[in-house]
């Protein structure tokens, strides 16, 4: 079979692929297109049947798409890509290092002598929680998460790092400030407990999601509660990992009674809600027996 | 006794002499520019609902910067209005807005004379940099006063463990002009290229 490849940007022909078997997958087509144009690495390509159509999945084939000889396919250049693992490691390492720098009260931000002002125990606990959270994220990136796409646009690196790193500096500046006022012990230890439970919850969900997907595949299975009691939140929401994540940051904000931390919790919640609503919609479309009572991110409400 | 305009006269009781230009300026700033600046905010809604063909994000930046300059700089500080940036900004804004809203109104009626289209998509080339220069000069004149008086700022310790430095905020806004102005200026040029080609104008959808 023969298929012509057209550029989605210019609608001009990039070239013609011949000697294609009907069983040729999209993944293999991308490698052949890369052969036509060196700059189009497979990860940069989004193949489509129509100019503004949906992106074809890697495991679809010419046969499954109903394509015959002489058909045309559009290729969109997604721009320079970067490995998602790389992005995650860089964007999470920043908060870990920057917070611990501010924890030592550098003179650059607080003036001379700030580091000798006594530190309330709540500030130590906050530093511990922050470190735990980002160390957990780094370890999950290395050992737990499995993704559908290997890469993301390189612009995301700058966008994501700015978000995490600048917010880290903003929050860390206030909590480690010599004039920081800690709330009472009940508030501190109560929220610390809530924080730790939410961290465990979030980790449980990540592991449960990983186990849904066999290694090396991009299989999609409906998520359900497992033997781990933390996963029972799946009975109420589609994305309990986001629910627990917001819970952690809410607990952290109450523990430190710090508005900048609260703003970070809200910003994260806003973004995660958008993602959760999208995932919830996708699950409902994909799995016909999806439980009607499940919400996206907030039990019973949203 | 004839004095040159703008010279502050001795005010006597029951003096009905006409106000000095400094006083006129002050009245104008306090009474008319705030409502004018706030009246620009529905512009965002018009763009969002596509009542007028404008980009929402760009309109948000324009309205926000204007409200900030009028309320946060001109009304809030005594140094802001004394800046030479004030007349620059006011002239640029005034001409731009008259042209723009006349264009929108006639666009809704379906009859926009080419001269008006030309004005809308050409005058900005000079007015935009002039307006931005005016705004930046006003911001610069205000930030020193804000730093000294710690205007609208919050320090620690406080119950929410929060700080806010209006001085740094103004400096940050001034800094934002560096990446944003070229983008918005080039966006206008791109719009111009779409609408005005070889002395004729294409229909704007």
From TrEMBL, chain B:
Residue spans crossing the bilayer: 56-78, 98-118, 125-146, 166-186
GO molecular function: very-long-chain (3R)-3-hydroxyacyl-CoA dehydratase activity
Lineage: Eukaryota, Metazoa, Ecdysozoa, Arthropoda, Hexapoda
Enzyme nomenclature, EC number: 4.2.1.134
Assigned protein family: Belongs to the very long-chain fatty acids dehydratase HACD family.
Keyword Transmembrane: yes
Pfam families: PTPLA
Membrane topology: Multi-pass membrane protein
Compartments it resides in: Endoplasmic reticulum membrane; Membrane
Keyword Lyase appears in the UniProt entry: yes
Entry keywords, A to Z: Endoplasmic reticulum, Fatty acid biosynthesis, Fatty acid metabolism, Lipid biosynthesis, Lipid metabolism, Lyase, Membrane, Transmembrane, Transmembrane helix
Function: Catalyzes the third of the four reactions of the long-chain fatty acids elongation cycle. This endoplasmic reticulum-bound enzymatic process, allows the addition of two carbons to the chain of long- and very long-chain fatty acids/VLCFAs per cycle. This enzyme catalyzes the dehydration of the 3-hydroxyacyl-CoA intermediate into trans-2,3-enoyl-CoA, within each cycle of fatty acid elongation. Thereby, it participates to the production of VLCFAs of different chain lengths that are involved in multiple biological processes as precursors of membrane lipids and lipid mediators.
Pathway where it operates: Lipid metabolism; fatty acid biosynthesis
Protein name: Very-long-chain (3R)-3-hydroxyacyl-CoA dehydratase
CC per GO annotation: endoplasmic reticulum membrane
Organism: Cryptotermes secundus
Catalytic activity: a very-long-chain (3R)-3-hydroxyacyl-CoA = a very-long-chain (2E)-enoyl-CoA + H2O
Class in the EC hierarchy, top level: lyase
Biological process per Gene Ontology, one example term: sphingolipid biosynthetic process
């Amino acid at each position: 079979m023969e298929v012509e490849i057209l550029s989605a940007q210019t609608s001009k022909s990039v070239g013609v692929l011949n000697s294609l078997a009907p069983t040729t997958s999209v993944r293999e087509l991308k490698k052949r297109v890369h052969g036509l144009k060196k700059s189009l690495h497979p990860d940069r390509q989004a193949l489509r049947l129509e100019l503004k159509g949906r992106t074809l999945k890697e495991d679809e084939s010419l046969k499954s798409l109903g394509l015959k000889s002489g058909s045309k396919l559009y290729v969109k250049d997604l721009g320079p890509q970067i490995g998602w693992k790389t992005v995650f490691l860089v964007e999470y390492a920043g908060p870990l290092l920057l917070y611990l720098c501010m924890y030592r009260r550098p003179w650059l931000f607080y003036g001379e002598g700030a580091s000798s002002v006594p530190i309330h125990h709540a500030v130590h606990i906050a530093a511990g929680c922050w470190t735990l959270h980002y160390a957990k994220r780094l370890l999950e990136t290395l050992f737990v998460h499995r993704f559908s796409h290997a890469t993301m646009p390189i612009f995301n690196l700058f966008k994501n790092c700015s978000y995490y790193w600048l917010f880290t500096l903003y929050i860390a500046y206030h909590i480690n400030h010599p004039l920081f006022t800690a709330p009472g012990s009940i508030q501190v230890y109560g929220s610390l407990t809530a924080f730790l439970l939410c961290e465990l919850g979030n980790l449980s969900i990540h592991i449960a999601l990983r186990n849904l997907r066999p290694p090396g595949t991009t299989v999609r299975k409906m998520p359900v509660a497992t033997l781990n009691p933390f996963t029972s939140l799946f009975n109420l929401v589609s994305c309990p990992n986001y629910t627990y994540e917001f819970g952690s940051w809410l607990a952290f904000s109450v523990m430190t009674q710090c508005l900048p931390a609260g703003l970070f919790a809200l910003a994260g919640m806003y973004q995660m809600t958008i993602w959760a609503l999208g995932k919830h919609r996708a699950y409902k479309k994909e799995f016909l027996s999806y439980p009607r009572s499940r919400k996206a991110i907030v039990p019973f409400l949203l | 006794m004839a004095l040159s305009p703008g010279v502050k006269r001795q005010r006597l009781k029951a003096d009905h002499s006409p106000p000095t230009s400094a006083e006129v300026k002050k009245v104008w700033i306090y009474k008319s520019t705030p409502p004018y600046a706030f009246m620009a905010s529905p512009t965002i809604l018009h763009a969002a609902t596509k009542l007028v063909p404008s980009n929402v994000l760009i309109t948000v930046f324009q309205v926000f910067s204007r409200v900030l300059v009028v309320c946060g700089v001109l009304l809030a500080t005594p140094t802001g209005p004394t800046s030479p940036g004030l007349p620059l900004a006011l002239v640029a804004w005034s001409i731009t807005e008259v042209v723009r809203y006349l264009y929108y109104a006639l666009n809704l009626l379906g009859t926009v004379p080419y001269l008006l289209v030309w004005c809308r998509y050409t005058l900005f080339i000079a007015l935009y940099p002039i307006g931005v220069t005016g705004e930046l000069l006003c911001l610069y004149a205000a930030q020193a006063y804000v730093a000294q008086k710690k205007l609208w700022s919050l320090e620690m310790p406080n119950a929410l463990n929060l700080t806010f430095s209006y001085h740094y905020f103004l400096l940050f806004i001034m800094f934002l002009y560096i990446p944003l102005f070229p983008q918005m200026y080039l966006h206008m040029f791109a719009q111009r290229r779409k609408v005005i080609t070889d002395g004729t104008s294409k229909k704007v959808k």
